[in-house]
Each structure stands twice: as C-alpha cells, then as structure tokens.
Amino acid sequence: MSTSKGSLPPRSGGNPRNGRPQPNSAARTVQKKKQVKKRGALARMGKMVLTLLIIAILAVLGYAGYLYWKFDHGSFGVDKPVKAGHSAAEKPITILLLGTDNRPKHPSNLTDVIMVVALNPKTQSATVVSLPRDTYVELSGYKKTKINAFYARFKSKEKTSGILAEDEMKTMMGKYLDIDVDYATVLDFQGFRDVVDELGGVDVNISENMCYTDSVDGTDINLTKGPARLNGGDALDYVRYRKSNCSPKTKASDDFDRNKRQNEVLNSLVGQMQSLGGVLKIGKVLDAVDDNMKTDIENAQIKNIISAYWKISKENIEFKPVTGTWRSPYVYINDKELEAAKQSLHDRIAGIAPGGTADSQN
C-alpha cells in the first residue's frame, strides 16, 4: 500500500484535530447571536438586582432620616444639649423607669413598676433591677412607706416644694441603691399597651391560668397556661395579675411573680425591637409612647442610646428582680438580693460585663 501524500484522499472541512466537521459561517453567526442574547439577559438581570439594591439602601437611609426627623419635630425627650462627655455612646448611664396605672377614668400616680437600669457602651451590657411595688422603704430623710407611694407623694408636693417629682425620685432611689441616677422616665400603662400592639404582640410562656374581673375599672383578665402571643391589653393583664375572683379561682400571684413576668415581657420586647419588623415599626412605637411618657432624657441623648445599644445582645442584659418576705401590707426586701442588685449596677457602671472583667477603656 502506498504511503505517498498524493495518494491520500482530500481532507474534509472538519476540525483537523478530531476530524469532526466545523460549523459553517451561518451556524457560527446563530451561535454568536445566542451568546449575545444570553449575555444581554444576564446584564439586564444584574442591572435589575443593582437597581433593587440601590432602592433598598435609599429606603433604609430614608427611614433613618425619617426617624431623626421625628425626633427633631416630635416631643421625644428634652430639647437641650447633652453635657460634653456625657453622651450615652461614650459613658455609662443610669435610668429610673416608672410605670403608673394612670388612665382617663382612673387617674393615679402610684407606681406599679419600679426599675433601675444601668447601661455601659464599652461592654455593651446592661443591668435591670426591679423592685416589688409593696417594698417597705426605711430611708433617712423620708417617711417610712411603700416604695410605690413615693412618686405620688412627690407629685402632690411639686407646687409647694418647687422640685419635680421625677427629680425627687432620682435622688431617693439613688440613696436607696447607692448610685447616681442620671435620668427618670415615667410611662403610663396605655403607652405600654400601644407599644406592644405596634410590635404585633409579645411572646410569653404563661405559667398558670389567670382569671380576674373588675366591673369598676373594666379589668377582665382571662389567660390560659402555656406559650402565647399577647396583644397590648393581655400583656398588661399578664404583668399586673395579682389574685382571682373567678369561679373556680385561679392561682394567686405575688409581687415577685409579677417582677419575673415584667422581666420576661421586657426581654421579649427587646428581641422584637431588634428584628427587621421591629426596626420598621420604630416610628409607630415612638408615636405610641409620645402622649403616654414623660422623661428628662435629652432629645439628642435618646438618639445616642438608640445608636449605642440597638444591637445589644440579650445575653448581656442582666435582670435582677429583688424579692423578699410578704407581711401585709409590705414586702420586706431580702438584704442579700438587694446587695447583689446594687453590685450588679455598680459592675455595669464600672465597665464589668456580666460574668466578665472590667473594660480597660472605661
């Protein structure tokens, strides 16, 4: 057999490497058009995603601007500057929180909720001390009485003393807990209801059935044991429930149980406020408390608090409910628990996180 090149059959127009036929020019043109269309579709998709991203960023920035506008044009906080070096983003602060059962048909300045909060921006930690409303207070310079009666008493003497009840409460609670109290905030229960409703309810685990009715003030508590999402009214009933007058009667509750439930609700609300849904509802939450809250925190300081503690971990919030012994009509506080609560407040102020060590920068 001859091996001469001239005797070999002519090559076809195929690929010289694999012998496969190459596409003709028309086929190549069609293939290029498909590739162009594919790249065009991907480019359009990329532009769409980029556009949506830009819109989302603008929406977030616009919402942040809206919140700042609400602060600047609303009645949130005191319209005066924060003292130099006292920004909540730079130094620890303490806040007295009071909850009153003040309603249009039932005016009252008795404080059913008494809490003191210490916040530290360096350690991103907080302590919340809650005291029973019937706590017996024996303090030099003050009449011996229940702790929930002091605010009402100071309020009734404002005109003659010339001192705001909130300032008197800061001084008194500062002496009681051995700390300086920077601010006081008073929220009536309607504000509490509205905040919970604006956040879409609050998740709790009801430990016992609760039933109580009062036709005079319209109270109608009827809660069933187990996990539940409560609206504002039911959440308030859950926090305030004391005893039952129903048939059959449900288990009674004392000040200590109520304090535990207050902390449970507060902890749940913190989580909901930090969620995306909570973030988008801040404006409505501010509206909810606008007419039901009194505070001496500066407007700019409220912004500082929100920016400094918005992402605080719930694990870094130490709840210290103080208990004691009930001997009608008072609760006699457990001294060891009170000292532990004071120490926790001092630790936050000193820059010691829960279970941690002091922050060197504080």
TrEMBL record:
Belongs to the LytR/CpsA/Psr (LCP) family. The lineage of its organism: Bacteria, Bacillati, Bacillota, Bacilli, Bacillales. InterPro entries: LytR/CpsA/Psr_CW_biosynth (IPR050922), LytR_CpsA_psr (IPR004474). Residues 1-38 are annotated as: Disordered. It holds the Pfam family LytR_cpsA_psr. PANTHER family: POLYISOPRENYL-TEICHOIC ACID--PEPTIDOGLYCAN TEICHOIC ACID TRANSFERASE TAGU. This is Transcriptional regulator. The chain crosses the membrane at residues 48-69. Keywords: Membrane, Transmembrane, Transmembrane helix. Residues 111-274 form the Cell envelope-related transcriptional attenuator domain. The keyword Endoplasmic reticulum does not apply.
